Amino acid sequence: MTRWLKHLSLLLPLCLALMACNRVDLAYRNLDTIIPWTLNDYLNMDREQKDWLEERLEEHLQWHCATQLPDYLDWLTRTRQMVSTRQVTDTALQARTLEAKQAIARTARQITPSAVELLRGMNDQQVNEMKLAFAKDVRERQEKYVEPPLARQIQRRSQRMDKRLTDWLGPLNKAQQQRVLAWSTALGDQNRLWIANRAHWQALFSQAMDQRHTSDFAQRIETLLVDRESLWTPAYRQAYANAEVQARALLVDLMADSNDEQRQHLQNRIDKVRDQFNALKCLRAAGTS
Predict the structure, then answer these.
(1) Do the Cβ atoms of 112 and 37 come closer than 8 Å?
(2) Distance CA 192, CA 196 (A)
(3) Which of 7, 55, 10 lies closest to 34, judged by CA?
(4) What values do phi and psi take at 212, rounded to 5?
(5) Distances from the Cα of 73 to the Cα of 78, 89, 271, angstroms
(6) 217 near 211, Cβ under 8 Å?
(7) Helix 124-141 and helix 190-210: axis angle, to 10°?
(8) What is the CA radius of gyration of the chain?
(9) How far, rounded to the nearest angstrom, does the alpha carbon of residue 138 sit from its chain's CA centroid?
(10) Rounded CA gap, 252 and 254, in Å?
(11) Going by C-beta distance under 8 Å and a sequence separation of 6 or more, which residues neighbour residue 179?
């Protein structure tokens, strides 16, 4: 259950959502990192369950590579064109973000039946351990992201974004750094609302697991994993909508203030991602590269 679309505030939301790690091949060897939930973080699976999951993930991987990856390559091409033609606009970013969400939802929906089967087979001890892991997760995030004074939260959020953007654009100039700080300030106490919503979702997931042998379990899990937004708290729904607006405005302003070197740096990074995808053996085997 990694943060849903936590990379929306980056220049390449889909690409980074697909790559929880920096290496595409490594992400593909761990397919559960390219969907909006991660079983291994919260479930203590036995050897038989791990073997079963590994086999299922390999099947999903082949499906994903053959049917989804070509669309991602097209998405990267459209994104690169936005940069090269200096058409990074709010409208264009909304389109790319919607495409990213739809792509992730397709993958989550395809793999959910396997998740349902695995989760239904968990014993009471495993479910209790999952609940303890959930509690630890919220507690640690509360300490890191919510307990510091708001001014410190804003500063740290700005620093994290600056670091991420530097990876894609190269060093930011003073005006860009100030714009990032303004973006972070505009998000206010979003951390608190995010953590509260996370705890709310985990509670719903725990309730579903307590009733994993009922007839509606599969539907409840699909809603939890695929249609997460329908379960958000009203406060977080409003905060998330604001975050999307603020993120798009930030990217539009940063690109408007970018220089030739930064834009070329970004295009080179996109090209590198495309090359990594094209080099995947599964893509070549599918004959789609």
Answers:
(1) no
(2) 6
(3) 7
(4) -70, -10
(5) 9, 21, 10
(6) yes
(7) 180
(8) 20
(9) 18
(10) 6
(11) 250, 253, 254, 257
Q: Where are the domains of the chain?
A: 6-286
Is 0.85 surpassed by the pTM of this model? no
Torsion of CA 25, 30, 35, 36, to 10 degrees: -120
Largest CA distance in the chain: 59
**pLDDT tens string for the chain (289 positions)?**
223 223 222 323 333 333 333 334 434 444 444 443 455 667 788 888 888 877 887 787 788 888 888 888 898 899 999 999 999 999 999 998 888 888 878 888 888 898 899 899 999 999 999 999 999 999 999 999 999 999 999 999 999 999 989 989 999 999 999 999 999 999 999 999 999 999 999 999 999 999 999 999 999 999 998 888 999 999 999 999 999 999 999 999 999 999 999 999 999 999 988 888 887 777 666 554 4
Q: How far is CA 145 from CA 7, 58, 194, 205, in A?
A: 17, 35, 10, 23
Q: Give the 3-state DSSP-derived string for 149-213, with helices as H, strands as E and coil as C.
A: CHHHHHHHHHHHHHHHHHHHHCCCCHHHHHHHHHHHHHCCCHHHHHHHHHHHHHHHHHHHHHCCC
Angle (CA) 241 242 247, round 5°: 100
Q: Which of 41, 228, 220 is nearest to 116 (CA)?
A: 220
Q: Which residues contact 106 (CB under 8 A, 6 or more apart)?
A: 68
- Do 37 and 53 touch, CB atoms closer than 8 A? no
Among all chains, which residue has been given the structure tokens 């997931």?
Answer: 205
| Rounded Cα distance, 207 and 160, in Å | 34
Task: Tell me the C-alpha distance between 79 and 228, whole Å.
Answer: 26
Q: Please state, in angstroms and rounded to a whole number, the distance separating the CA atoms of residues 284 and 277.
A: 10
Q: Which two three-digit tokens encode residue 260?
A: 């030739």
Amino acid at 204: L
